[in-house]
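Deliverable D5.2: sample structural annotation.
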Amino acid sequence: MNKAVVLLSGGIDSVTALALASRENEEIYALSFNYGQRHSKELACARWQAKYFAVKEHVLIELDMLSISCSSLLDRAIAIPKEETDSIPNTVVPGRNMIFLSFAAAYAETKRAEKIYLGVSQVDYSGYVDCREPFVTAMEKAINEGITWCAEGQGSIKVIAPFMHMSKVDEIKLGNELGVDYSKTWTCYEESEQACGECPSCRLRIKAFNEIGIVDPIVYKKV
């Protein structure tokens, strides 16, 4: 059976990746993380989307990344930036995608899934080094060396980052074609009932919907 593991945060990228994986594979396993992020509302969106796309299994992993990492997404004493800067933003969580892909690889081995979908984009790089193609390529190689049935030549695992060179505009257009309900996604870095509309993540989302010419279905405090 054609199986895939999808890293599902509940944001635009991961949900669109889930929709694409659901179209391309027979059986989907979704993996989400509660790693101490202040915007944990995205996990509710992840659970909703997992049910909507009828995944075979949805697993939530509990991690305490604040104990090993420093980021404004983890530490509420650090202010979320409202403007883009030329330096690495303090929203970067060191090693996050490396850790997530390691869990996904172990999950894929257990389920004998030969694909892992990851919704990262080099176009939206903004200092996130673990969203670049060289990182994904290196992790795929490491996974195939570190997973027993791959290293022994019984199969291989492909890390698929379908939006690596795709703009947010084209990604949302694709999601609409795939039937994604973007009202059940969470993008904002802040911890609140409504998205702030000011953080870099909100700004990128708002800009994309405006360029497409359709209404963003979520409510913002300020736009």
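Annotation notes: The mean pLDDT is 94. The longest strand covers residues 27-34.
The annotation will be released with the project's public dataset once the embargo ends.
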